Amino acid sequence: MKLLRIGPPGAEKPATLDRHSILRDLTGAIDDVTPEWLAGGGIQRLADVDLMQLPLAPSNQRIGSPLSRTGKIVCVGLNYSDHAAETGQEVPDEPILFLKAAHTMQGPNDDVCIPRGSMKTDWEVELGVVIGRRALYVSEVDALDHVAGYTLCNDVSEREYQLERGGTWDKGKNCETFGPVGPWLVSRDEIADPQRLRLWLEVNGRRFQNGNTATMVFDVPYLVHYISQFMPLDPGDIISTGTPPGVGLGQKPPLYLRAGDQMRLGIDGLGEQHQHVRPST
């Protein structure tokens, strides 16, 4: 099942794609894709609905984030060994974790804004894991039972703020518009193996990232297990699982986003994002 939310910011309505990839209106079946809906088995109940009988949804509307009221985004740093190498850092012995606030989330095709004074805004295509059932101290064996599905994330980053301004990585990760998510929340049953997904990113038509989740240092079940030892993962939370090589920081010389650039990125089975880059107002 592919769930999405369409409409203007703050007024999105739930929708889905039927088996013919036709957009269907879900407002008569559910109120929204919320943490409570996920926790209450909403995806499982919706599986019993004949999507072909739902009304058509307008196809020309903006696509928002596929989730409403996400509590937190837990990001994993340096989770591809070749990405660690391109940034000149060691492959970690344990997952490197940092938080991205929910205010960064936006639709998959909304503009990305260069922060004021920024010279090193960068791109990162990532697999997002959406939590469907509260996870705290879960085992690796049971970890996927807590996953509702998967989505596409662009972990936009400001490298000077992240690496050169002291403190933690959070400074470079939480600027406004730095968390495009979607277009879809794809239910777990549609992704046979989250460790066999091709992911890629282009800037102005040039492909910079071309990786596969098979090369993750820490796989999805381990990440859910590991993170749950330090904090609860609640329904609607997202784990952004790291990026493959090809980021701007890793180019020789480094190359960063500028106003007017166009980003395009995707993951097998999870759709694509398209973003115009503009200055912050």
Walk me through what this model shows.
The chain has 281 residues and is mainly beta. Helices cover 10% and strands 30% of the residues. The longest helix is centred in the C-terminal third of the chain and has 8 residues, at 220-227.
Short description:
With 281 residues, the chain is mainly beta.
Task: Give the secondary structure arrangement, pairings included.
Blueprint: E1 2-6, E2 13-17, E3 23-25, H1 35-39, H2 42-46, E4 73-77, H3 81-86, E5 96-100, E6 105-106, E7 112-114, E8 121-122, E9 125-131, E10 147-154, E11 157-158, H4 159-163, E12 179-180, E13 185-187, E14 198-203, E15 206-212, H5 220-227, E16 238-240, E17 262-267, E18 271-279
Parallel strand pairs: 4-16, 6-12, 7-18
Antiparallel strand pairs: 1-2, 1-13, 2-3, 4-5, 8-11, 9-10, 9-16, 10-13, 14-15, 14-17, 17-18
The string of secondary-structure elements, in order, is EEEHHEHEEEEEEEHEEEEHEEE
CATH superfamily: Fumarylacetoacetase-like, C-terminal domain
Secondary-structure-derived class: mainly beta
Total helix count? 5
Termini gap: 37 Å
Portion of residues in helices? Answer: 10-25%
Radius of gyration over alpha carbons? Answer: 18 Å
Proportion in β-strands: 25-35%
Overall pLDDT metric: 97
Given the C-alpha coordinates, what overall shape results?
A: globular
What is the tally of beta strands? Answer: 18
CATH class: Alpha Beta
